[in-house]
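Summary for the steering committee. One of the milestones for this cycle was to obtain a three-dimensional model of the protein with iron/sulfur cluster bound, which we needed before selecting residues for the alanine scan. The sequence and ligand used are listed below.
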Amino acid sequence: MIVGQRKSLQELQAMLSGYKKILLAGCDTCVAESACGGRRETAELAAALKLAFQMANQDVELQETSVDRQCIQEFLVDVVAAAQGYDAVLSLACGAGVQALVARLATIPVFPALNTMFLGETAERGVWLENCRGCGDCQLGYTGGICPISRCAKRLLNGPCGGASNGLCEINMARVYDPPVPCAWEQICHRLQDLGELERLYSVKPSMDWSKAGAGGPRRVVRPDQRL
Amino acid sequence: MQPIPEVVVLACTQAVPQPAALRQALQQVGLSGRIIQEPCSSKVESFHLLRILAQGADLVWVVGCPEQYCQLAEGSTRMGFRVAHAQDYLTELGLEAERLGYSRVAAGNPEDLAATVAEIQQRLRKLPPNPARPRQTV
Ligand code: SF4
Ligand code: SF4
């Protein structure tokens, strides 16, 4: 799932300054699960911005809407319809959803309410962890299903750096992480050991082809069978 | 348009079975209050609290049951988290977090209710009028 974080009210207020009729558009899938852009958070943000504008003595009309996924045309049409007559749209979708909306609203500006953070997992209530960077060349099959690209601070491919202590990555020494960041390579080694597959690490992995990760320009997936 | 009450109380029906009595108790100490009945305090969302403040109330109060008596097991506990979450927005906005509060009352217990009224009264005494009140209601 895509994990996001709400921008500060101050940044949003500055971004929206001058608009009198604003539609807030929530997205009820990934960012609802990561509790920053679903229906409930859209209602919270609308109420908080209303308070902010009223404190600044500004008359701004705010309306809320929400769809299941802003990144899909069929769902997005409802937001496009709802946006007609508004001066601006504040989208609580991830960056992909915001841009999908931008492409369909030629004359209405669309602003992001969130900072889109990463592909992650809900590890526990209120804790989301990054565990995939969409590198385009998945290594999980060699690493016991634990991602060294997103979970190792140095993105190492051939074993640990040697800086870990008590199972924790050395970045915990730079600042306090709650919960602390485990050493992904220790996790990989233990996992493969438990599975009796440690020999997967015996051959040296060549360096990654980062062009597949986006270094080769914007990526796309084209499926002729799906285009019919 | 109805006048904006100073305090809006969102009260669980189990904790406050007689909302009229609570409204009267508020009136007796000179407060205009509106009581909204909730099936459980966990039905109160953070955005409800913020919306009511945006409508101009000076204080929004939630009454739930003592945690061990909540009919939805952890509803009353969650209510506390939601009030705290809404208070975070107020802090970010530069508004007093004390504009939101809650208490836990054992099924209409008169002492608990009297303590709630006293706490509401005390809070309102300390708070200036809501600066985020919509302009037309000032
Ligand atoms: S190896 Fe690449 S694709 Fe696989 S989980 Fe890690 S970042 Fe994602
Ligand atoms: S301590 Fe472990 S996770 Fe951290 S950078 Fe080194 S190998 Fe990677």
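Key point for the committee: The first helix of chain B runs from residue 19 to 28.
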